Amino acid sequence: MSKSRSHTMFIERDMHRSRAFQKLSKSATTILFEFLYRRRLEQRGSEWVVTNNGEIIFSYREAKKLFGFVPSTMASSISQLVENGFIDIAHQGVATSKDSSRYAISQRWRDYGTDKFIEQTRQKDTRKLGFADPKRKKIATEMESVSLSKPIAISLFKRVATN
Hints:
There is one protein chain. By secondary structure, the protein is an alpha+beta fold. It is built from seven helices and four strands. It has a two-stranded antiparallel ribbon with strand order 1-2. The protein has a two-stranded antiparallel ribbon with strand order 3-4. It is globular and about 55 Å long.
């Protein structure tokens, strides 16, 4: 495969026919195909090597734009791909700080359903960043407790109506 971006991707027959692949949801399969499309392969001798492994970026925003997937669909798809051995999370990013997650293509799927399979799950982010920040939670809680009284709502409406 040349270093320029091709409009094709390679899927191993063994992967397609594997028990791990058959367990994937439609959305997880779509996300897997996108990861396979984004990998860069280089032939070294008789082997093909992923040269950008651990550096593959695919954001939730891109999943929404390309496939219409909401964040919960993307999250569950990534979890399935990690749990079934197709990808690993090399770096867990934070969307609110524009720190992208980076992924690696894994071969763990080959051992899925056997004693040799190395189980992994998507790690829960405990860094308390973004909307999980306790300061932001406090502000959100305070905002929920604020309610507008009728006179304020009516006066705002009248101002808009008279202008």
